């Protein structure tokens, strides 16, 4: 069937290809009815090309379409072969000075914070790098797709609109040139014809809605019964739902279903079945049925194949148009004309209108294609952009209505184009004046929020899900409004004024619907049953915040507009509250001889709302008026006469009282929604247009009324009127405990009220309120933030309000108020407050939260104490008020205020019960302080003709009047000064009295007014104490200096500890574990130390005592005692790998005996160095396991460690472990001491003896393995074979270790085997000992690499956990043979030995180029005792070690010479050294044995150098190995870094300094050995260049190089597409830092199966690249990802920092990021040290949520 279809398709193709584009276009040129002709062509061919089967063949379709359908059009346009025609057009075209590059998803975009008109103006990377902005303050973001580069748009940039490339095209722009003049009349006419037909065709077919019928002029004669079941995208159903449904409905595999779902998500639709109508209909009904249960069903259509075919071609056509107009601006102009030409149906009927108006009905793929066409055509042509903008504005309401109904994201809606017009200043202004855009937007917005209460206010309560959904969508309209307002007019026309005010009216209507919304009533008795909805209202407020501010900014620009707006706003406010009584009962209050009319209203009993946008807008406008010139010159012209101050203050005051009552706990029963509202009311995101403006409104009110009246109203609203009007209120409650709650509540309310008064008088840093500018305001904010604590840049930014351009204005002032402290290896850069700014600190700063206030207070007092100052925190000196607000200060000296102060001080003096509080007193003291500061300033700034009317000092010195006869405030303060219960406030009172005296002095000296007589005692006292004080001060300074030095020193010490944390911790650990390891100290310091061989330095046996961390018992490490173990973690590693492509797919069969020199996968063992009894550990481990199993069953929780795999956490340090290493004494000493002969064989003799012994073993084994042979034959053979002297193969030595130690040897051996090979544990497997030796060798190699890379000495101070680990590991590996089968170990030895001394009986031995010599050395040395223990001929173990070492060293030298880089070095040497001559001789021998295949002899100097360099790592590893094996202390020379220590190493390792001497000493055997090594066929192949080999020294692996600038990584990732699907979307491009591969992470498309489970691309990659461990950079998130296995992972801070020393995880802030080399090095260190898994473990222990993440899907 399939092949039949295939051949049919091919047959069609052939006939199609015969069709000639030239002929067709010729026919068209002759046609009288071109449209009919072209349509016929399309009707005939399109269904033959597209949609021929179940799956699309995009390449073939494109090829055919180009040939048959598009080709003729191109011919037609050009009138000749387009291959010549288009280049001609291109040449005559003047390239555009606009870039217009359309952004892909994830592409980096740049905005200049200095020059961009608004943050939506962005550049592509290429333009940015060629622009002046790269040296400015810029911001980098990643595009969400859509939008284009604004390079060349002069309106978008205040400066530098062109990059270098686009600048070139600007030289000749004159005015507006018609691009059509570059085209011939003919081309214009033909292009117009064909564009008109094709554009119409595409629009018609894409918006076609019938499912089985084509438009009449495209209908076919014969129609097949072929249909598609088309599935459409929606935003309701999840991926999983779709995949599940598809598997059911169309019977496909999960993989296919994933494919379908992914395409649907990307393109918006995908056919999921092809066949006859019935067949497709059936699938449709299953899908609909399956998805309609909870939500609306998935959209599915059964469509005739020909319709789909035409639609596919329609899309192709649109992209074709887009590319054709790229040839010439003239063509683009024609297409614009065609697109915007009004159609037959009149207004809004052009092709572009038709597309826009059916936007919400189109599928995603179609939308993005035509949006792109609009961007490359209409938006690139400045003339038509304007016309298009007008059309867009005309259709605005309808488009928004459609968008509301549509369920797609805004990014794929045509409404998202608004940003392209609305942010362009001239366009926006034109649209405002000509299309009344502001009003249109606001009205559209209001239309969609219909839900209102009886008063016409918005109501969000009982909102349905659908309404909530619409509400979210409608918010984009606010964004549009913001765009329109973002660039402010520099000039106003009358038209603009009129239209703006019209828009302002509409806006007021909107705010009116918000004024008083969501009112609340205090809940008494019971708690509220349901938390009322509050978020919607706040969302609205939050979204509108910037718009409200911008409205004010606009008003501020034109006085006429401002005054008009002010009047309008006031009128609306009056409407809102119907005058001020609002129907409430009037009452009158009197107090201290003043009386005032007000209303009866209690916040705690009646409705109150937090939303008062109209009042707040009026407050904002009032401040602007106050700032304006009119206010200074002709205040009478301001529309202030209509204001009724009591009405203005009423509602803001209620709101503030509400906050106070909530704070006093009176609204507890109203639940969290209220708490949240109060929180947001003060929050930085809202406060600017909420809380701040309420304060301003009260300030406005107070400045216009009698302060006594204001205070009385305020007392009444705070419900405190009775407290202060009742005589002896304080006394009444002093002993009465029944009203405790009420009293406390009242106390809080009094505190809050005093705080409010402080704010009203003190908050004058908004320009317009006080005589300050915007800089002063922001400075003050920063000073107060930094008074709390030093802060990082981002923290500070977050605490400051952002304007509509996302700017806080912080950068311009930060240097004036703070010092920057750079970050270290971790942490962030910090800003610290400059000490001289501390005097501006105001404890009652109005943006402090309670917590911040108390923190700041504490910090500031501490600072003062440190500086040896008094701890008073007096109010700072304040700037003067603007004239409109000037009378506000009088509130401080008003009668009511003084009465309140007096009363509270009285309470404090009498100190009765709980009728007062310290904070109350503190606030009164602050207020008094403020009044004094005010008076002092008035006096200091007084001019001749003015009389200072602020006479606070006079008033407070007067005693109270009859009948109370209370003492004066001053007198009470003096009393309180000595009160022992007010210790904290003593300094403040002292400060007040001092200031009082200072003022008195000023007054006296200027004698502007008589001063009342006061007690002079204080003055006298101060002068008497003056001398004393001076002396004291000097002593103080001296002590201070001393203390400072001390502090510096301790700081330095702390720094040292920080920097050397690891070292420090280790010393601590050492103390803690009390492991008395001493053998690093040179015991035998005078001798030359030798680590091995018969000349090995004898070290006196040391006893070692250790303490178990679990039971705290001390024990000696001995052969026969109970085992002590170290917690250890064994892991596979590819850190040293030189070949990451190697993959071992069958671990069961893998033979690890020989390690390849590419070290592609090793087994690393690490330990935290904590020691336990084996049995204590076992008990601990069992209990952990049992506990975890229970927990997992119960909670289904994951842990940071995998219990089933034997993992546990070290009980002391919580380090991840998976086994334990037994602690042993040097194992050689146990066997060595048995025999000691002086006469030892030389290398030649030794090799001969060993070869004989091996042969004997082989003979024995052969017999043993042939059971049929009679035992008599056996004996005969034995006789024939000359048995080596003293060799007793039947001897089996006794294992000296205790049972417990033996058990641990097996445990650790098995663990190494299990982890290293990834197999099931099997202690009998012959590979167990090999894995143990391998792990020992690999771990030593890893450590050697780290030490060398870091230039640390080989035997320098090693962290003691490493030292412990290496010692135990080496000794363990050396002892392991005692628990393995003797014959197995002997077998391994024989085979290893055969690789160097061939004996013909092993076939599969690699050549010496393919053996890692250090692994070979370790294997041979550690297996040797198994052979030696049966040898009674007198050869000692030491001799064997030495000969093995020499033999392997020789092989390594040959290996190095064979692979050394033999570039010709023609220099002849003058005086070759002995070594150089020797190495030349050896090289000649090699040359000879390789049959001259080795290259010509280079110079000796060069050869010797490469041998020395190549062998160094091996020598170093060997030195470590023998040091730990035999316990010989290291020579002191190697304990320091510096020189290469080649000679010292040779001495220590018992090697001649001239290494080649080894060959000369043993010349009898060397030639035959060299011959056997060189004659190997692999060596030959290598020398012939047919294969490769590892060279020495191997270079250390590094993590990949990262670019300095982070954006180039983003750019790289944006060019990366999913390797499986192609296309342009990879959601989470992730870079492997080990090998540099980019992966498509966290996505269905790239999931693969690993060990039977679906895993994401990263996890899959770790298995091939890192043996399960991975280090990645998530490029879009700017986050480092560590992975280990399938279940473990964590995020790590990235090595990229911004200029403020901070990382930007998630790329939210967009500051430019640069590589921090030190941090990157630290990550590399973690990798080299094999600490990634440990790091993950610690992160997961610290943050449990990390455990729950599905790491395997990343
Ligand atoms: Zn660009
Ligand atoms: Zn450019
Ligand atoms: Zn700039
Ligand atoms: Zn113990
Ligand atoms: Zn530990
Ligand atoms: Zn993918
Ligand atoms: Zn990799």
From TrEMBL:
Q: Which UniProt keywords apply?
A: Metal-binding, Transferase, Ubl conjugation pathway, Zinc, Zinc-finger
Reaction(s) the record says it catalyses: S-ubiquitinyl-[E2 ubiquitin-conjugating enzyme]-L-cysteine + [acceptor protein]-L-lysine = [E2 ubiquitin-conjugating enzyme]-L-cysteine + N(6)-ubiquitinyl-[acceptor protein]-L-lysine
What is one Pfam family matched by this protein?
PRT6_C
The protein's matches in InterPro entries, at most eight in alphabetical order, are given as:
ClpS_core, E3_ELL-like, E3_ligase_UBR-like_C, Ribosomal_bL12_C/ClpS-like, UBR-box_UBR2, UBR1-like, UBR1-like_WH, WH_DNA-bd_sf
What is the role of this chain?
Answer: Ubiquitin ligase protein which is a component of the N-end rule pathway. Recognizes and binds to proteins bearing specific N-terminal residues that are destabilizing according to the N-end rule, leading to their ubiquitination and subsequent degradation.
Family in the record: Belongs to the E3 ubiquitin-protein ligase UBR1-like family.
Q: What is this protein called?
A: E3 ubiquitin-protein ligase
- Organism of origin is Galeopterus variegatus (Malayan flying lemur)
């Amino acid at each position: 069937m399939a092949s039949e279809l295939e051949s049919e398709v091919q047959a069609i193709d052939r006939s199609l290809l015969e069709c000639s584009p030239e002929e067709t276009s010729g026919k068209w040129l002759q046609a009288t009815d071109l449209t009919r002709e072209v349509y016929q062509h399309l009707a005939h061919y399109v269904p033959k090309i597209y949609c021929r089967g179940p799956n699309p063949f995009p390449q073939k379709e494109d090829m055919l379409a180009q040939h048959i359908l598009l080709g003729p059009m191109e011919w037609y346009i050009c009138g000749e072969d387009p291959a010549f025609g288009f280049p001609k057009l291109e040449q005559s075209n003047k390239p555009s000075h606009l870039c217009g590059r359309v952004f892909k998803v994830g592409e980096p975009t740049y905005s200049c914070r200095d020059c961009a008109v608004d943050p939506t103006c962005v550049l592509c990377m290429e333009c940015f790098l060629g622009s002046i902005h790269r040296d400015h303050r810029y911001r980098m973001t990643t595009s969400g797709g859509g939008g284009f580069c604004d390079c060349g748009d002069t309106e978008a940039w205040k400066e530098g609109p062109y990059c270098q490339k686009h600048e070139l095209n600007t030289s000749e722009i004159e005015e507006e040139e018609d691009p059509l003049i570059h085209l011939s009349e003919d081309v214009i006419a033909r292009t117009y014809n064909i564009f008109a037909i094709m554009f119409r065709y595409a629009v018609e077919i894409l918006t076609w809605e019938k499912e089985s019928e084509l438009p009449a002029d495209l209908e076919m004669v014969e129609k097949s019964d072929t249909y598609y079941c088309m599935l459409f995208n929606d935003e309701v159903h999840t991926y999983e739902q779709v995949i599940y449904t598809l598997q059911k409905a169309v019977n496909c595999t999960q993989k296919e279903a994933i494919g379908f779902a992914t395409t649907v998500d990307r393109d918006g639709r995908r056919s999921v079945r092809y066949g006859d109508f019935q067949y497709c209909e059936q699938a449709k009904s299953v899908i609909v049925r399956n998805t309609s249960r909870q939500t609306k069903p998935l959209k599915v259509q059964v469509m005739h194949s020909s319709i789909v075919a035409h639609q596919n071609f329609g899309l192709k056509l649109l992209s074709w148009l887009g590319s054709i107009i790229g040839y010439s601006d003239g063509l683009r102009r024609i297409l614009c004309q065609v697109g915007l030409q009004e159609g037959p149906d009149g207004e809004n009927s052009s092709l572009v209108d038709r597309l826009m108006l059916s936007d919400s009905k189109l599928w995603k793929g179609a939308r993005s294609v035509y949006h792109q066409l609009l961007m490359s055509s209409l938006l690139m042509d400045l003339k038509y952009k304007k016309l298009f903008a007008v059309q867009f504005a005309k259709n605005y309401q309808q488009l928004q209505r459609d968008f509301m109904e549509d369920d797609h994201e805004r990014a794929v809606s045509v409404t998202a184009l608004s940003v392209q017009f609305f942010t362009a200043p001239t366009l926006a202004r034109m649209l405002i004046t000509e299309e009344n855009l502001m009003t249109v937007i606001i009205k559209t917005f209001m239309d969609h929020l219909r839900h209102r209460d009886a008063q016409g206010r918005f109501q969000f309560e009982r909102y349905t899900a659908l309404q909530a959904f619409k509400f979210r969508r409608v918010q984009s309209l606010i964004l549009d409004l913001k765009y329109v307002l973002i660039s402010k007019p520099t000039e106003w026309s009358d038209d603009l004024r009129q239209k703006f005010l019209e828009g302002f009216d509409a806006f007021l209507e909107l705010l009116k619907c918000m004024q008083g919304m969501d009112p609340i009533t205090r809940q008494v008795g019971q708690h509220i049953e349901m938390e009322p909805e509050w978020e919607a209202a706040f969302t609205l407020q939050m979204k509108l915040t910037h718009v409200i501010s911008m409205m004010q900014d606009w008003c501020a620009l034109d006085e006429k507009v401002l005054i008009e707006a002010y009047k309008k706003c006031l009128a609306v406010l009056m409407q809102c509250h119907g005058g001020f009584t609002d129907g409430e009962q009037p009452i009158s209050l009197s107090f201290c001889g003043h009386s005032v009319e007000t209303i009866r209203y209690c916040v705690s009993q009646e409705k109150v709302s937090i939303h008062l946008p109209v009042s707040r807008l009026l407050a904002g406008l009032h401040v602007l008026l106050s700032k304006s010139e009119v206010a200074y010159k002709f205040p009478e012209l301001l529309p202030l006469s209509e204001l009724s101050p009591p009405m203005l203050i009423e509602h803001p005051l209620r709101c503030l009282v509400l906050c106070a009552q909530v704070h006093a706990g009176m609204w507890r029963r109203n639940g969290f929604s209220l708490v949240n509202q109060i929180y947001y009311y003060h929050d930085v995101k809202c406060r600017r247009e909420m809380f701040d403006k309420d304060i301003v409104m009260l300030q406005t009110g107070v400045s216009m009324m009698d302060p006594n009246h204001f205070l009385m109203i305020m007392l009444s609203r705070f419900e405190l009127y009775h407290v202060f009007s009742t005589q002896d209120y304080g006394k009444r409650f002093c002993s009465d405990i029944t009203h405790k709650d009420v009293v406390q509540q009242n106390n809080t309310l009094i505190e809050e009220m005093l705080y409010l008064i402080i704010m009203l008088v003190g908050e004058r840093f908004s320009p317009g309120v006080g005589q300050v500018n915007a800089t002063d305001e922001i400075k003050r904010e920063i000073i107060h933030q930094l008074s709390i604590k030093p802060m990082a840049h981002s923290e500070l930014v977050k605490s400051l309000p952002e304007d509509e351009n996302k700017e806080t204005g912080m950068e311009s002032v930060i240097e004036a108020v703070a010092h920057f402290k750079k970050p270290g290896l971790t942490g962030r850069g910090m800003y610290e407050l400059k000490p001289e700014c501390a005097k501006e600190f105001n404890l009652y700063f109005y943006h402090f939260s309670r917590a911040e206030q108390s923190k700041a207070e504490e910090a500031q007092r501490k600072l003062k104490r440190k500086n040896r100052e008094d701890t008073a925190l007096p109010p700072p000196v304040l700037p003067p008020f603007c004239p409109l607000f000037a009378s506000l200060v009088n509130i401080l000296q008003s009668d009511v205020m003084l009465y309140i102060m007096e009363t509270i001080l009285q309470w404090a003096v009498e100190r009765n019960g709980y009728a007062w509080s310290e904070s109350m007193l503190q606030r009164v003291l602050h207020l008094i302080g403020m009044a004094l500061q005010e008076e002092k300033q008035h006096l200091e700034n007084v001019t001749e003709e003015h009389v200072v009317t602020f006479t606070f000092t006079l008033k407070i010195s007067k005693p109270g009047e009859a009948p109370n006869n209370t003492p004066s405030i001053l007198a009470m303060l003096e009393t309180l000064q000595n009160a022992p219960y007010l210790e904290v406030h003593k300094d403040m009172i002292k400060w007040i009295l001092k200031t009082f005296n200072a003022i008195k002095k000023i007054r006296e000296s200027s004698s502007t007014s008589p001063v009342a007589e006061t007690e002079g005692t204080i003055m006298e006292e101060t002068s008497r104490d003056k001398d004393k004080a001076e002396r004291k001060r000097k002593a103080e300074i001296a002590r201070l200096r001393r203390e400072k030095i001390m502090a510096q020193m301790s700081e330095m010490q702390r720094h040292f500890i920080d920097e050397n944390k690891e070292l420090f911790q280790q010393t601590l650990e050492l103390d803690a574990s009390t492991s008395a390891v001493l053998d690093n100290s040179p015991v035998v310091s005078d001798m030359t130390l030798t680590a091995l061989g018969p000349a090995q330095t004898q070290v006196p046996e040391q006893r070692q005592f250790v303490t178990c961390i679990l039971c705290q018992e001390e024990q000696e490490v001995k052969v026969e005692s109970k085992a002590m173990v170290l917690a250890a973690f064994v892991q596979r590693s590819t850190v040293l790998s030189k070949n990451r492509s190697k993959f071992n797919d069958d671990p069961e069969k893998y033979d690890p005996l020989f390690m390849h020199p590419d070290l592609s996968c090793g087994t690393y063992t690490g330990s935290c160095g904590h020691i336990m009894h084996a049995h204590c550990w076992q008990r601990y481990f069992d209990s952990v396991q049992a506990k975890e199993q229970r927990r997992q069953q119960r909670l289904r929780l994951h842990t940071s460690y995998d219990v089933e795999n034997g993992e546990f956490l070290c009980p002391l340090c919580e380090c991840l472990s998976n086994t334990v290493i037994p602690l042993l004494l040097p194992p050689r000493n146990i066997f060595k001491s048995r025999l000691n002969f002086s006469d030892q064989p030389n290398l030649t003799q030794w090799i001969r003896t060993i070869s004989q012994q091996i042969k004997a073993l082989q003979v024995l084994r052969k017999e043993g393995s042939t059971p049929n042979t009679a035992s008599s034959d056996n004996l005969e053979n034995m006789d024939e074979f000359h048995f080596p002297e003293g060799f007793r193969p039947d001897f089996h030595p006794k294992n000296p270790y205790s049972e417990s130690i033996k058990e641990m040897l097996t445990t650790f051996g098995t663990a190494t085997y299990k982890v290293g090979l990834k197999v099931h544990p099997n202690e009998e497997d012959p590979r167990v000992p090999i894995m143990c030796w391998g792990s020992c060798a690999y771990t030593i190699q890893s450590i050697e690499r780290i030490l060398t890379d870091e230039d640390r000495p080989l035997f320098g101070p090693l962290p003691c956990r490493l030292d412990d680990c290496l010692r135990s590991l080496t000794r363990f590996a050396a002892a392991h043979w005692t628990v393995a089968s003797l014959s197995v170990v002997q077998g391994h030895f024989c085979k290893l030995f055969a690789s160097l001394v061939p004996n013909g009986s092993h076939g599969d031995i690699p050549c010496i180029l393919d053996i890692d010599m250090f692994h070979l050395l370790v294997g041979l040395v550690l297996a040797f005792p198994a052979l030696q223990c049966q040898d009674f001929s007198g050869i000692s173990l030491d001799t064997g070690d030495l000969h093995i070492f020499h033999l392997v060293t020789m092989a390594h030298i040959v290996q190095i010479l064979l692979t050394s880089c033999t570039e010709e070095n023609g220099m002849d040497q003058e005086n070759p050294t002995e070594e150089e001559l020797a190495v030349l001789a050896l090289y000649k021998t090699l040359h000879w044995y390789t049959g001259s295949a080795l290259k010509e002899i280079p110079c000796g100097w060069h050869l010797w150098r490469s041998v020395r360099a190549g062998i160094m790592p091996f020598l170093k590893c060997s030195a470590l190995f023998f040091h730990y094996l035999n316990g010989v202390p290291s020579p002191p020379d190697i304990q320091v870094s510096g020189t290469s220590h080649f000679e010292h190493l040779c001495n220590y390792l018992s090697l001649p300094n001239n290494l080649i001497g080894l060959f000369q000493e043993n010349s009898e055997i060397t030639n035959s050995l060299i011959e056997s090594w060189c004659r190997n066929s692999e060596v030959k192949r290598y020398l012939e260049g047919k294969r490769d080999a590892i060279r020495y020294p191997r270079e250390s692996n590094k993590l990949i190089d990262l670019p300095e600038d982070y954006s180039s990584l983003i750019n790289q990732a944006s060019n990366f597409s999913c390797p499986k699907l192609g296309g342009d979307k990879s959601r989470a491009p992730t870079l492997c830092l080990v090998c540099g591969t980019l992966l498509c992470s966290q996505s269905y498309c790239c999931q693969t199966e690993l060990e039977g489970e679906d895993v994401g691309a990263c996890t899959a990659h770790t298995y091939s690249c890192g043996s399960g461990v991975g280090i990645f950079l998530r490029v879009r998130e700017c986050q480092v990802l560590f992975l280990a296995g399938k279940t473990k992972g964590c995020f790590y801070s990235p090595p990229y920092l911004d200029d403020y020393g901070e990382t930007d995880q998630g790329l939210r802030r967009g500051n430019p990021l640069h590589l921090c080399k030190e941090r990157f090095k630290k990550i590399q260190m973690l990798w080299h040290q094999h600490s990634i898994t440990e790091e993950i473990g610690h992160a997961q222990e610290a943050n449990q949520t990390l455990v729950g993440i599905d790491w395997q899907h990343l």
